[in-house]
Amino acid sequence: MDERVIGRSGQRASVVGLGTWQLGADWGDVDDKEALAVLEAAVEAGVTFFDTADVYGDGRSEQTIATFLRARPELDILVATKMGRRVDQIPENYVLDNFRAWNDRSRRNLGVDRLDLVQLHCPPTPVYSTDEVFDALDTLVAEERIARYGVSVETCEEALTAIARPGVTSVQIILNPFRMKPLREVLPAAHEAGVGIIARVPLASGLLSGKYTKDTVFAANDHRTYNRHGESFDQGETFSGVDYATGVEAAAEFAELAPQGYTPAQLALRWIIQQPGVTSVIPGARTPEQARGNAAAAALPDLSEDTLSAIRDLYDRRIKDQVESRW
Question: Dihedrals φ, ψ of 74, to 5°?
């Protein structure tokens, strides 16, 4: 699989990575054996980039990755994690002492002395404008606790603020055929600044796979049940912020646009891969089959201009007005 350099960092990531939120929590139950099988399927398909966070299963996702990599020491996998969501979401908690404590925990969970890439995990908006926060991140680099740092954001405005910071390596942002706003300013600004773009929620929480209907019932411990209206965290993380009924109808239209040989999910991933400035897209997977299918999108032919235009038309007609004013 092709790898791309993450901005000016020199670090490399497979163009399709693996998001591991599903392996920790909030997507229903996944047992340890199944989680390890997903990681194995991903790397066998060419994935060299894992994205996790210290709150995914309260550290379970990080620990699962560590278990897997200990058993496969020959692998060269870049592991990005995130920090900041273990405390009340107020700017005053984003300080060096907390950063060190969170870093210690993640290093223990992952079984490493230095973390490859640490991202602020969608912190309160003022954090992106606080010099002391980025001074503290620079300190973690100087102390060799982390190699590089980036941010994970909810809004395009947060992304643009972060991109202006000279030490930021990457911006992780929701980008998919139901969330196109980052294409206008964020991706060009990141390219100009030498900042990598990690595209998350690429399948709109599964909507773009085309397998859900208005009657689909998700588990009680699945965020697609309990966070549809932002009850627990930002609504944009669930179905990309799109109303479920609208999303299901639009996803059915989207599936019809898939060229022969593409699944709807691969159509969505290929669309992201083709966007100038994207470093890696990080779909999650709950089964080895899903991991292999996602990775296969990297080898599919580019989408035609007609297909790209049809995807844009669908977004403009059905989705744009729901999401662009908020994110």
Answer: -75, -15
Q: Give CA–CA dist 300/119, Å, rounded.
A: 30
Give just the sign of the alpha carbon dihedral 268, 271, 275, 280: positive
- The model's pTM: 0.95
Q: Give the DSSP letter of residue 131.
A: H
How many helices and strands (H and E) does the chain possess?
Answer: 12, 10
Residue type, 302: D
Instruction: Tell me the residue type at 84.
Output: G
CB atoms within 10 A of CB 91: 16
Q: Report in angstroms the alpha-carbon separations of 10 from 140, 141, 164, 200.
A: 18, 15, 19, 21
For 47-61, the three-class secondary structure string (H helix, E strand, C coil) is CCEEECCCCCCCCHH
Q: How many whole angstroms separate alpha carbon 165 and alpha carbon 167?
A: 6
pLDDT reported for residue 26: 59
**Range list of β-strands (E), 84-181:** 115-121, 146-152, 168-174
| Contact partners, residue 161, CB within 8 Å, separation at least 6 | 128, 129
pLDDT tens digit string along 243-262?
Answer: 999 999 999 999 999 999 99
